[in-house]
Amino acid sequence: MTPREYDESDARIRPSRTTRRRTKDRPSHSDSITAFVTTVDRGRTTCVTDDGVVVTAMKARELGPKSVVVGDLVEIVGDVTGTEGSLARIVVVNERTNSLSRTVDDAARVERTIVSNIDQLLIVVASANPEPRRGLIDRFLVSAFHESIKPIIVVTKVDISPVPDFIQEYKTLGVDIITTSSKLENRARDIEKILEILDDKISVLVGHSGVGKSTLINDLVQGADRMTGDVNDVTGRGRHTSSSAVALALANGGWIIDTPGIRAFGLSHLNRDRIIESFPDIYQVIQKCMPNCSHHENSCALGPWIESDPELRAERLTRVTSLRSLLEVKPVDEER
């Protein structure tokens, strides 16, 4: 048998597995349009453009691990018609003015952002059934002051029980207190009062399950149809009826964001000094404190300041006492 001669056509060249050379250059997306995120669910984001078009979008891979949350202003490209089955891409998450975030507990360091770009934080509590829990209210207030968000406490079910005294004390920190009744003859007036506060603002509702948050949303937004739940007679806790945050448009302009009922709100990611900066007069006084002052010591500059004006002593004492309780933010089990 004569030996066979081979040429290059007989050689099998294995396809190269190398990919296209990576580059730091990224598309400019000059044709992108701005949209407001209203829901985020399993990788799909619903957002509304300035023209009122509701668009479904997904996060572009180039954004990496950066999260998209309700309240974000994003840039979208692709199919932005909003027609059924269409899908746009989120290519930019614009810088947030602020955000409401939490950690799982006070020992955790991983911060989870819930919503962003907020004007007002409405802390919804019930005067009874379930009983208001000061620990969680304090935590919401600390987060609001830290992010320069205006806090408002909404007390529901005041026809069942009066507003607790400790909630009234928050007024000295500049926190507005609004009450609502379950009685029909008072309900319309209460809702109208809240709507005036919400006009042209982005407002977030937070609170325990069972305090009447979803009921309040249904009264504020026609057609919202948020599921409502009862309080468990055995545990005294509400049942979760909202599983994720959702932004709903208000008739007179603005947005209201409903959030899931929260039982734990860790604050290990916050800076205490930024909280005090929300109270300019107190912040000015503590500049005279010793380094590392916890503002509870006898040597704290707040003591002489309280006593320096007899006419303002009571008011200053109440304000400082309330602020000190916020700064403590002791690890507590809000589910108790």
UniProtKB/TrEMBL annotation:
Domain CP-type G: from-to ranges: 101-265
Classification via SUPFAM superfamilies: P-loop containing nucleoside triphosphate hydrolases (SSF52540)
Biased composition (Basic residues): 14-24
Keyword vocabulary terms for this entry: GTP-binding, Nucleotide-binding
GO MF annotation: an example: GTP binding
Bias kind Basic and acidic residues: ranges: 1-13
Region Disordered, annotated ranges: 1-30
Annotated protein name in UniProt: Unannotated protein
